[in-house]
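Q: Structure for this?
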Amino acid sequence: MTPMSNVSVTKDAAPTAENLVVLDNVNKHFGALHVLQDIDLTIARGEVVVVIGPSGSGKSTLCRTINRLETIDSGTILIDGRPLPAEGRELARLRADVGMVFQSFNLFAHKTVLENVMLGQLKVRRVDKKAAEEKARSLLDRVGVANQADKYPAQLSGGQQQRVAIARALAMDPKVMLFDEPTSALDPEMINEVLEVMQQLAQGGMTMVVVTHEMGFARSAANRVVFMADGRIVEEATPDQFFSNPRSDRAKDFLSKILHH
Amino acid sequence: MSDETPSDEARARENVFDFLDSGQYDVLGAFWVTVQLTVYSAIGSLVWGTILAAMRVSPVPLMRAFGTAYVNVVRNTPLTVIILAASLGLFQTLGITLAGGSDFETIGFRLAVLGLIAYHATFVCEALRSGINTVPVGQAEAARALGLSFFQVLFLIILPQAFRSVVAPLANVLIALTKNTTVAAAIGVAEAAALMKTMIEYESDAIFLVSAMFAFGFVVLTLPTGMLLGWVSKRVAVKR
Ligand SMILES: Nc1ncnc2c1ncn2[C@@H]1O[C@H](COP(=O)(O)OP(=O)(O)OP(=O)(O)O)[C@@H](O)[C@H]1O
Ligand SMILES: [Mg+2]
């Protein structure tokens, strides 16, 4: 395993030197299963990191530990220089700064699209209703679903729902956005509309951790690819290096499978 | 109904219902007490049942333990025992009258409501808990990821969806509650069943008529409740 985090790889938005997310020697078990093994990962402000790897390798778990939806057994996680709080108000505040987009969208089913995007602003950020609505509408416009504001999530297509979910996360002005396979539950024709929104975000300088197998996105938007297998980070490289010239056998094997299909 | 002004209906059916004419039985008044028992107990059960459900899903082990123990003990105790315990234990032994007063009738009413709430809240709690289980975990995760606190997640995201999926079971609890108010007769609350018992005693030639009348009265109370809530249940169902 070669540490690549100190190799500066620049794309559109040059990351500053400052590290926004730092995982140091993180370990996590599910019972006897060692899902995260000695994970060291540093993500700079403005950097876009794509996490890739076979099913069950621990990608989702890694993503979820960063906002403590999963607890860790040992090691440390720093967000913007501060360790992850254990529980309570502090943790809630931190989560508000870490946006998360799920594979299954998870929009609040009993609330309209607009209410979904307003809720966090009203209840966590405590901004007033008018400002929250204004911001929600402009975000919905930005992700291209402004005309769906008064519908319920179930009335939207998967692609639209996922874009609303992105708007919902953005409404909190997060420092970093986590995406866990945001397009894998979508019909093929809807994948691009979501990737485009993510692409724009990346260009706008958002710090992003994206679990995805979309190589087009990785190549065009990512600063770095992190390849995981069996709970370990096996390889880290620029997208070009990784896809055209993987070093580890695990990565070669994995790429040959996804490239084939 | 007072005897100075017997209603038109009553006069028309003079022969059969003549026992009503005397004015010594206030049937509507008795049913009004039943309705009041039902409404106060329903509101109380809903509130207490929601709190119990919140305890049962809370991350605090002590709360969970209390919620579980309470539900399992109270739900499996006969309602009559609970109401009698409220009357004999709280009032007659400990002298607790709930908000003062010495009027036996009001005290009995309050204690009956208390007992009915204590009992039916367990059913509300369990219905709600099954509703909570229908809410996908992703809903809570997305809410937590936004930075909402445990209580915000529960009261803004989980419970509103849980309630919508259990309107029909809650309607059943409400119907059972309406009928169970008759147990309050055991501690001297002058609700419908208490009056029925008196009437059967004094109008023994009209036992069937009296019984049918009270049965009809309860159907009038419960049938619309069931139908209304059945409709509400369809209206508010969460589409996924
Ligand atoms: N809550 C859980 N309890 C027990 N085991 C779990 C839990 N969540 C995940 N696992 C296991 O941990 C391992 C890693 O899971 P994880 O979801 O992080 O993998 P992944 O890389 O995201 O896979 P996929 O590509 O299928 O999403 C898997 O073997 C999975 O079965
Ligand atoms: Mg996963």
